[in-house]
Amino acid sequence: GENVEQHPSTLSVQEGDSAVIKCTYSDSASNYFPWYKQELGKRPQLIIDIRSNVGEKKDQRIAVTLNKTAKHFSLHITETQPEDSAVYFCAANFRRLGTGGYNKLIFGAGTRLAVHP
Amino acid sequence: GAVVSQHPSWVICKSGTSVKIECRSLDFQATTMFWYRQFPKQSLMLMATSNEGSKATYEQGVEKDKFLINHASLTLSTLTVTSAHPEDSSFYICSARAPGLAAYEQYFGPGTRLTVT
Q1: Which chain A residue lies closest to B90 (C-alpha atoms)?
Q2: Mutation choice for A interface testing from B4, B58, B104 by most A CBs within 10 A
Q3: Torsion angle, CA of B50/B51/B53/B54, rounded to 10 degrees?
Q4: Is A21 on the interface with B (CB under 8 A)?
């Protein structure tokens, strides 16, 4: 089936520490893996994404790694700050080409990150 | 660029009535739009994929006669919740994707909070 598993469901860290969130996906054909940050009552905001032709991508304090063989990708946040507190979702695209084809995102269950001053 | 709006931002309706939610891409043409539902403290669950000029594709378990989707133009998709019940109360979020081979990213609307009394 089309499935994305995300762990942990909650994560509590001290300001300045690193946070790591992990996801696995079920379809080896998936080739796009975005990460979203969602604050209460707001829309998901894309914070970083990675495609299957690279293994790692970094943007300041945020990095994503991808292991295609294991169908596993992770979000790394370094030097966490209180404003990083939010719910983070990973997602993977599931696609079928040809007649009746589709290309859609399936989301993980989310990780509630709390960064304590 | 890549702005998606939704209207209304919140709505309260009585059980048994219908509610229409609009999703617009303001500065790009979206050949594909997606509708998600998000219950409190849960993930985004894809309801349906909407392609301009054709019938929407619904995810398993989503009643197409209850959640009517129309994608009449490249900038507008609508979701109508028919005969709403209290269990339909949720946060409904749309997203839009631009056409093209490099188009993986989805741009999310701000969401519509539906409360059915």
Answers
A1: A41
A2: B104
A3: -70
A4: no
Angle at alpha carbon of residue A61, lines to A55 and A67, rounded to 5° = 20
A13-A79-A58 Cα angle (round to 5)? 120
CB–CB contact B104 A32 (8 Å): yes
Which residue, B7, B19, B3, is CA-closest to B85? B19
Q: How far is CA A90 from the centre of its chain?
A: 3
Q: What is the 3-state secondary structure (H, E, C) of B30-62?
A: CCEEEEEEECCCCCCEEEEEEECCCCCEECCCC
Query: Which residue of chain B is at minimal alpha-carbon distance from A4?
Result: B43
Position B100 confidence tier, pLDDT thresholds 50, 70, 90: low
Condensed to tens digits (0 to 9), the pLDDT of residues A32-83 reads: 999 999 999 999 999 999 999 889 999 999 999 999 999 999 999 999 999 9
